[in-house]
Amino acid sequence: MTPECPLPYAEHECLLLGHGAGGRLTAELFDALVLPALGGVPGAALEDAALLPGQDELVLSTDSFVVSPLVFPGGDIGSLAVHGTVNDLAMRGAMPLALSLAVIAEEGLPLAELRSVLVSAGKAARDAEVPVITGDTKVVGRGACDKLFLNTTGIGRRIPGLDPSATRARAGDAVLLSGPIGLHGTAVLSTREGLGFATDLASDSRPLHRLVKALAPCGGDLHVLRDPTRGGVAATLNEIAQASAVTVEIEERSLPVPPAVASACDLLGLDPLIVANEGCLVAFVTAEAAGRALAALRSLPEGAGAVRIGEVTAGPAGRVVLRTLVGARRVVDMPLGEQLPRIC
Amino acid sequence: MKYLDEYRDPALARRLLHELSSVATRPWRIMEVCGGQTHTLVRQGIDELLPAGIRMIHGPGCPVCVTPLETLDRAMAIAARPGVILTSFGDMLRVPGSETDLLSLRARGADVRVVYTPMDAVRIAQAAPDREVVFLAVGFETTAPANAMAVLHAARLGLTNFSLLVSHVLVPPAMTALLDDPDCEVQAFLAAGHVCAVMGWREYEPIAARYRVPVVVTGFEPLDLLEGILMAVRQLENGRYEVENQYARAVRREGNAQAQSAVREAFRVGDRAWRGIGTLPASGLELTPQYAEFDAARRFGVLELTSVEDPACIAGAVLTGAALPTDCPAYGTRCTPRTPLGAPMVSTEGTCAAFHSAGRTRDPHTPADSLSQEPT
Question: Whole-model pTM above 0.90?
Answer without folding.
Answer: no
